[in-house]
Structure formats: structure tokens, C-alpha cells
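Figure 2 data, in text form.
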Amino acid sequence: KIQSEFIEIIKSAKKITELNNSEFYFVYLPSYNRYKYNQLTGYEAVKKIIQDLNITFIDLDVELFSKEKNPLIYFPFGTSSHYNIDGYEKISEIIYNKTQ
């Protein structure tokens, strides 16, 4: 049920984007748990849905985190939280470059 609701929400967002002559990008923001505990909850399913709907998928794991020996450097003091200043700066640069 959650997956079908997610699909309908994404389809609606894509339709609104198209009606406004805009581009729709889906940005995957990995969580702390992905790197600390190797938890990939729903990642593959979400990625497949986005790709099947022909939506650009910006995967910040591929673009940033997996390129680091220790991806936890982008979290405050390497702990579970939002990203730190460096993390947000790198993420915003990637998103900007991918959407230009």
C-alpha cells in the first residue's frame, strides 16, 4: 500500500511539473544509518520507481558519499543527525550542477 501511494504521489508531482513546463528531479539523500549500519531501507525500490517513471534520479550516495573513505564526515561529529555544513555545501553544489 505504501509503495502504491508513493507511486501515485510521484506521478502527480511529475504531472504538475510537466504542466508547468518544468523538469522534475528526484534527489536521494542518504541517511546516517546507511553508512553506520548498512541499512538501505527501500532504496532499490524507490530508485526503480523513479527510473521507471522516467524521472531524473540524483543519487547523492553515488555522487558524493560513496566517494569518501568515511562518508560519516558529512554528519555532525559523525553522529546521527542532519548533514553538517560541509555536507550541505557539497550536496548543494552537486544539485546545482546536475540541474543546470
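Caption note: The chain has a mean pLDDT of 92.
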